[in-house]
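#help-structures

NK: newbie question. if I give both the sequence and a SMILES, will the prediction place the ligand too? trying with zinc ion
OV: yes, paste both and it writes out the complex. here, I ran yours:
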Amino acid sequence: MEIPEKMHAMVMEKPGFHLVDTILPVPRPNPDQVLVQINACGVCRTDLHIFDGELTHPKLQLVLGHEIAGKVVQVGEHVANFRVGERVGVPWLGYTDGTCAYCRRGQENLCDHPEFTGYTLNGGYAEYTVADHRYCFPLPPSYTDTEVAPLLCAGLIGYRTYRLAGENIERVGIYGFGAAAHIIAQVAVYQGKQVYAFTRPGDTATQEFARRLGAVWAGGSDDMPPVLLDAALVFAPVGPLMVSALRATAKGGIVVSGGIHMSDIPAFPYDLLWEERALKSVANLTRQDAIEFLEIAPRVPVKTAIETFPLDQANEALTRLKNGKIEGAGVLVISS
Ligand SMILES: [Zn+2]
Ligand SMILES: [Zn+2]
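OV: that's the protein plus ligand as structure tokens.
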């Protein structure tokens, strides 16, 4: 197919300033990269943290976006696992060195020299992008590109967060019921867990949404659940929720933060941590997380609630996300 010379991209010149609709050259793949024509790109809370300057080392100018679904239109000479015309997903983890101590022991999510899509590499708020084929994934055929985009970060990070809460849990609390939560709640229900959903106080619409997805209980984040939880996943970037979640867990309870950024966690009495409760965080993802999650999602099947925006309304999408106005996940729909 004919690859154009130029493309539209929504570019962040610097944090805090609106993304600017810009004409850029279509990038050319290096030997390890595929060129992807982007059909859909999810809008993730991490994009908002980068946009707001809370993650402090973005490349500039930057094309945000790391939940990319599209089609391979050109391949570098070392690319063996994708062909022109195939569907492809590009996630947050864009590159690892493969040689540091973390990579060598299977923790590539903690790599000392990583690259991240839509942060240190240009991402998916554009018509085209290049990506290292070793970090890309085939997409499950039962989803459209728009449906699958939120699975590529909200789903993957949600899944890793859930997995770090341990296998033998029955009652799992989810604090902050947005994109990641609504996906992982479906997986948890499918696996026979009881899901307790905590939303912004008074947000009865989201509580109802959580119940429709199978939560046995939904309430405000300032409420105590009717029973103590075995684990809690915290997706809202609000430090005090880590303490609320700890308070809601039983002995041995694990509280996992799924976010890349969070406001400060206030001091709390040791009694809340006592009895082998634990606080943890999730950083990034491994390729194995993606393989497992993309295998389980169609079996559930996970259904993504989506609000779509055209590419040139990326600023509106970020604003709605910031104000908690998106039920489920926001997705930029790019090629027509
Ligand atoms: Zn490494
Ligand atoms: Zn993300």
